[in-house]
Amino acid sequence: xxxxxxxxxxxxxxxxxxxxxxxxxxxxxxxxxxxxxxxxxxxxxxxxxxxxxxxxxxxxxxxxxxxxxxxxxxxxxxxxxxxxxxxxxxxxxxxxxxxxxxxxxxxxxxxxxxxxxxxxxxx
Length: 123
Fold this sequence. Notes:
This protein is α+β, with helices and mostly antiparallel strands. It is 36% helix and 16% strand. It has a five-stranded mixed β-sheet, covered by helices on one side. A hairpin with a 6-residue loop joins strand 3 and strand 4 (84-86).
C-alpha cells in the first residue's frame, strides 16, 4: 500500500467536496478508518453518486468518529430524515446507501451504528 501524503489528502479533500446544499455523506478518514479501507469507501461513494446523477450530494471526509470497532464509518445526513452513522461500510454497502438511503429514503438497517432517538428528531 502506498504511503498517504498530506498533499494527497488535500487533493482528495478538494476533489470529494461540493458546495451544493442538501444531503451529505461524511466518511471517517482517521487512521483507523484508512486502515480499514475508508479511502476506497470514499471513492465508491463519489463514483456511485456520479453514476446515479446525484451531483447535489456533498461528500466530505472527517477524522475519527470514535467507532473504531466498526470502521469504515460514514455519517449520512438527508433533510427530513434522522442523521445516521453507518459502520463497516465496504464498497457494496456504500452503493446500497446511495441506492436505498439517498435515492429511496430507506435506512440500511443492518449497518446502522448510531442514530438519534425518535423522540429527539424534529420534523
